[in-house]
Amino acid sequence: MKKSGILNRHLAGALAMLGHTDLVVICDAGLPIPAGPMVVDLAFRAGVPSFAEVLQGLLDELVVEGAVAAKEIRGHNAATSALLDGSFPDTLELIPHEDFKTRTRDAKLVVRTGEAQPYANVILRCGVPF
User: Fold this and answer.
1) DSSP states of the chain as a string?
2) Can you list the alpha helix ranges (DSSP code H) found in 22-123?
3) Would the pTM of this model clear 0.90, i.e. be above it?
4) How deeply is 130 buried, as exposed, middle or buried, from its count of CB atoms within 10 A (0-12, 13-18, 19+)?
5) What is the chain's alpha carbon radius of gyration, rounded to the nearest angstrom?
6) Average pLDDT along the chain, 130 residues, taken 10 residues at a time
């Protein structure tokens, strides 16, 4: 059994299949999940695991070139907005929430958290480690 890193076998396997420019959505329990992408639902109960925990876990495992979030986060979720600003100081793109939902259709993987906060969602664009 793995001692560290991501233990969820579905998530570990999905991450291993990602390539350059693939999109990964980390979403809260309320975001509509489109048909198509592989979905790994980590939600255990309300707030568990948190968006911040899942984001940090994935950032520990992936090379990320950029991120996209809904611009509405600025006025509705200060904590997650600050987390995303700190995690992606030069690469965070903000777009209208309806456009964000449309872009999730292009994701290869959706990871659902137990978070239940407004706009606690982000799209990550995978990079390469060189």
Assistant:
1) ---SS---HHHHHHHHT--TT-EEEEE-TTSPPPSSSEEEE---BTTBS-HHHHHHHHHHH--EEEEEEETTHHHH-HHHHHHHHHH-TTTEEEE-HHHHHHHGGG-SEEEE-S--STT--EEEEE----
2) 51-61, 73-76, 78-87, 97-103
3) yes
4) exposed
5) 14
6) 73 93 96 94 94 96 96 97 97 97 97 96 91
Backbone angles phi and psi of 2, in degrees to 5? -60, 140
**65/111 Cα distance (integer angstroms):** 18
Q: Is the preceding peptide bond at 49 cis, omega within 30 degrees of 0?
A: yes
Say how many Å lie between the first and final Cα of the chain, rounded: 29
CA distance 113 to 99: 21
CB-CB contact of 105 with 121 (8 Å): no
Rounded distance, CA 10 to CA 75, Å?
34
pLDDT of amino acid 5: 79
Q: Which residues are catalytic?
A: 20
Which residues, at least 6 apart from 79, have a Cβ–Cβ distance to it below 8 Å?
A: 117
